[in-house]
Design a protein that fits this description.
Helix content: 40-55%
CATH topology of the largest domain: D-Maltodextrin-Binding Protein, domain 2
Number of domains: 2
CATH architecture of the largest domain: 3-Layer(aba) Sandwich
CATH superfamily of the largest domain: Periplasmic binding protein-like II
Order of helices and strands: HEHEHEHEEEHEHEHEEHHHHH
Radius of gyration: 23 Å
Strand order of the largest sheet: 2-1-3-10-4
Strand content: 5-15%
Structural class: alpha/beta
Length: 327
């Protein structure tokens, strides 16, 4: 055998050895069974998690997630702070307010939905923020809309007092709106928009959606946070979990069919109706633009808004609040 052929053979053997070593290392990874709180019940925006399970993206890295539906970001944050879950999806305002008040022991690691979903529904098109002047706006007593809308109006040089903001119980909010008792109301897309639109259609009414992001609202609707101690002590495990989540999302956005989306959600929401579910999935795909890495500027803008409306008094160093786990 010539020296050249011998060198080639050795290089090939080394290549095979390295490949086998990598495969054995992957096989040796201990199974992870993270509990992950959602920031609401199962909905179309979370379908990619089910897609990742169905396509074995979690299994491929020996991760068996346990997803925990909740009533909202507040509960999800409570679950992670009490140690009942390892990870939680929350909206960035909830996380940042808690971080600024030094009430959280978590770190943000991933963006699932990089735009705010707080929107306005109306019976007639709204030409801009000024179109709300002289109108009523219905929201919920615990909703962030009570502070967000006045902030957005002021940013657009509109007197917030020109809008009559009414805090209503959820059981009457949309019923009153559909009856014409209030002019506009808080809505979320993806979220409540498609179901309300279906209700209105059955009554022969046409609704219009206006996104507050188009009026300058900045924020993340869904981010993933992890207990800081877990990130410190087991960074490779965190990266493995977040990597599987990221693959599930990117692959679902690129390849999941409407039929797959509906069939998967039907397993966790048996009462789901096909048309609104699929439409909600399209709302999510239309809204999400840059999932994955957290942009510190968004956190900074959001904290400044939270300070302007009196929710926080001090703005912490943004760089200490997140540690991106995907490139």
């Amino acid at each position: 055998m010539s020296i050249r052929n011998l060198a080639a053979s050795l290089a090939l053997l080394i290549s095979f050895a390295l490949f086998d070593s990598a495969q054995n290392a992957r096989a040796a990874d201990a199974e992870l069974t993270p509990k992950i709180a959602l920031n609401f019940t199962w909905q179309a925006a979370y379908m990619p998690l089910l897609y990742g399970q169905a396509k074995s993206y979690f299994k491929a890295v020996n991760v068996t997630p346990d997803f925990v539906p909740t009533r909202g970001s507040d509960q999800a944050l409570q679950l992670i702070e009490s140690g009942q879950v390892d990870y939680a999806f929350v909206d960035s305002d909830t996380f940042l307010a808690s971080a600024a008040q030094k009430k959280t022991t978590t770190t943000a690691v991933y963006v699932w939905l990089d735009k705010p979903t707080l929107d306005v529904v109306s019976m007639a098109p709204l030409g801009g923020p000024s179109a709300l002047s002289g109108k009523t706006f219905g929201t919920l007593p615990q909703s962030s809309a009570r502070t967000v809308l006045p902030f957005v109006l002021r940013q657009n040089k509109i007197d917030p007092k020109s809008v009559d903001i009414q805090a209503l119980d959820f059981s009457v909010l949309y019923a009153l709106f559909l009856k014409g008792g209030i002019d506009t109301a808080e809505i979320h897309a993806p979220g409540s928009w498609q179901n309300l639109q279906a209700q209105a259609g059955a009554l022969g009414k046409k609704l219009y959606l206006t996104r507050m992001k188009d009026w300058g609202l900045v924020g993340y609707d869904k981010i993933l946070i992890v207990r800081s101690a877990l990130l410190r002590d087991s960074p490779a495990d965190v990266k493995r979990v977040v990597g599987a989540i990221n693959r599930s999302l990117t692959e679902a956005l690129a390849h999941a069919t409407d039929a797959e989306a509906y069939d998967l959600l039907k397993t966790v929401v048996p009462q789901a109706k096909e048309a609104p579910i699929i439409a909600d999935w399209h709302d999510y795909k239309d809204l999400v633009q840059k999932p994955g890495r957290i942009d510190g500027r968004v956190f900074d803008d959001s904290l400044r808004r939270l300070k302007a409306v009196g929710i926080v008094t001090d703005i912490p160093s943004v760089n200490t609040l997140y540690a991106n786990q995907v490139r």
